[in-house]
């Protein structure tokens, strides 16, 4: 069985990728750059899925280290990123990534297709246009149930609720301290986490806040942070109810 290493600091993204991959591949997980660099050389995997936005050392820096290491430089590396702006795909391919998959992973065939192409030595996937956010909560949860069953979907909801509450609180604290980099770092993973379960209003607000923080435009951020917190509070009872129903099925 082929071995795939996954570097992802977002816990629900790790859970989702593991459920998609484990029937087909042996999966090893890492949460940051230093840990994967330490783990790759003793046992080189067949392919690496590498998140771009990582703490301490981002995915580009990790890739540079990999390409500079003789025993690892030919390792196929696929970028996993919530950045889906025009030109991002070409940018990451030019930096040395072998392929590029955007988060949230709505259709598992996109990820599996990229992996299969790279393991076979084929070309990267053609560019795609990310879907606009829509009201697809129930449809997304249905897809999660098909992928991993009721227990997995309930766990995804629980992880989302705990993780998103923490990251929104971190973003609000960072904004209060005038730390726009902290706001950007806190809201970036919320965007993909919300997409994973179909919380599209939260996903849309997280993307807007992240973009404003990245462009150092602080004025609208305060009201949007209140709005995303309100959206989370509004969605939480519905998601809790769904989670409870899945546990007791």
Textual characterization of the structure:
Helices cover 59% and strands 10% of the residues. It folds into 2 domains: 3-119, Response regulator (Rossmann fold), CATH 3.40.50.2300; 137-247, Four Helix Bundle (Hemerythrin (Met), subunit A). It starts with a strand and ends with a helix. Residues 127-136 have low confidence and may be disordered. Strands 2-1-3-4-5 form a 5-stranded parallel β-sheet, sandwiched between helices. It is of the alpha/beta class. α6 (137-176) packs across α9 (221-247) and α8 (200-214) runs antiparallel to α9 (221-247).
Keywords for this entry:
five-stranded parallel sheet, 59% helix, single chain, 9 helices, 249 residues, alpha/beta, 2 domains, globular, Four Helix Bundle (Hemerythrin (Met), subunit A), Rossmann fold
**Count of discrete domains:** 2
Helix content: 55-70%
Choose one word for the global shape. globular
SSE arrangement, N to C: EHEHEHEHEHHHHH
Measure the end-to-end span: 33 Å
CATH class of the largest domain: Alpha Beta
User: Segments where pLDDT lies below 50 for 5+ residues?
Assistant: 127-136
């Amino acid at each position: 069985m082929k071995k795939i290493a996954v570097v992802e600091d977002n816990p629900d993204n790790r859970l989702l990728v593991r459920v998609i991959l484990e029937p087909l591949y042996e999966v090893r997980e890492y949460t940051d750059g230093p840990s994967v660099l330490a783990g790759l050389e003793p046992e080189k995997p067949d392919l690496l899925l590498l998140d771009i936005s990582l703490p301490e050392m981002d995915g580009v820096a990790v890739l540079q280290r990999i390409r500079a290491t003789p025993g690892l430089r030919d390792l196929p590396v696929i970028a996993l990123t919530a950045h889906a702006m025009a030109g991002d795909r070409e940018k990451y391919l030019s930096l040395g990534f072998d392929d590029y998959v955007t988060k949230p992973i709505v259709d598992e065939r996109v990820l599996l297709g990229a992996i299969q192409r790279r393991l076979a030595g084929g070309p990267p996937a053609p560019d795609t246009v990310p879907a606009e956010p829509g009201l697809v909560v129930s449809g997304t949860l249905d897809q999660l149930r098909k992928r991993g069953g009721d227990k997995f979907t309930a766990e995804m909801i629980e992880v989302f609720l705990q993780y998103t509450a923490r990251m929104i609180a971190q973003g609000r604290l960072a904004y209060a301290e005038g730390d726009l980099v902290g706001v950007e770092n806190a809201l970036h993973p919320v965007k993909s986490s919300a997409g994973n379960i179909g919380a599209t209003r939260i996903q849309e607000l997280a993307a807007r806040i992240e973009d404003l923080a990245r462009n150092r435009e602080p004025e609208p951020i305060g009201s949007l942070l209140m709005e995303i917190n309100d959206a989370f509070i509004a969605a939480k009872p519905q998601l809790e109810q769904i989670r409870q129903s899945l546990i007791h099925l």
